[in-house]
Specification:
single chain; 191 residues; mainly alpha; two-stranded antiparallel sheet; 72% helix
């Protein structure tokens, strides 16, 4: 009977998740006594996909403390939360004018993740290291093979404007247009 009730609760949590009703899904989880791997994964995935990363990590931690064995779905569900925290950590260090510590976090974790680059580029710029911001932007495209998104472009433009060595400031506008980003009526760029 316990397995059937757990399966029913898992189906309810998944239904609420698909409807975007996160708190109802959590209420079903918390009201049930038996949680299997599907129950835990549903909640972790739901929180990660809803940008509620600290809650995803809390559920992951509780899952580990309960002794539930992780599977590939668990790992895939918790990774976005970990990635978000790394970006937030880079941002915090740079906001506290500790760019070196921000760069250490970046260097340990950057890989092909644009989110970390989108934290490091404005971190450099706001701390007066505009050349480093531009170098990181160029490396992102030429070495890592990543295409910038609107966040990247919004963070690199101030570096272009501030950098005296960057002589072709107009070309960044052309590149932005080439990527398909525009600024419309003072609103953020839309694709």
């Amino acid at each position: 009977m316990g397995d059937q009730k757990t399966s029913t609760n898992n189906a309810l949590m998944a239904m609420y998740a698909k409807l975007g009703r996160i708190d109802e899904s959590r209420a079903v989880f918390e009201s049930s006594v038996d949680h299997d791997i599907v129950s835990w994964n549903t909640m972790i995935c739901l929180f990660s996909q809803s940008d509620r990363f600290s809650e995803a990590l809390d559920f992951f931690r509780f899952m580990v403390l309960e002794g539930v064995e992780l599977d590939s779905v668990t790992i895939a569900s918790v990774l976005p939360a970990c990635s978000h925290l790394e970006s937030a950590l880079v941002d915090v260090y740079c906001n506290c004018h500790d760019v070196e510590s921000g760069r250490r976090v970046f260097d340990r974790n950057s890989g092909r993740r644009i989110k970390l680059r989108n934290a490091m580029i404005p971190g450099y710029t706001q701390n007066g290291f505009v050349e480093k911001a531009l170098i990181l932007f160029i490396e992102m495209i030429e070495v890592a093979g990543l295409l910038p998104n609107t966040t990247t472009m919004a963070s690199v433009i101030p570096a272009c404007v501030q950098c005296e060595a960057f002589s072709s400031k107009e070309s960044i506008h052309g590149y932005t247009v080439k990527l398909g980003f525009e600024c419309t009526n003072g609103h953020p760029w839309q694709h």
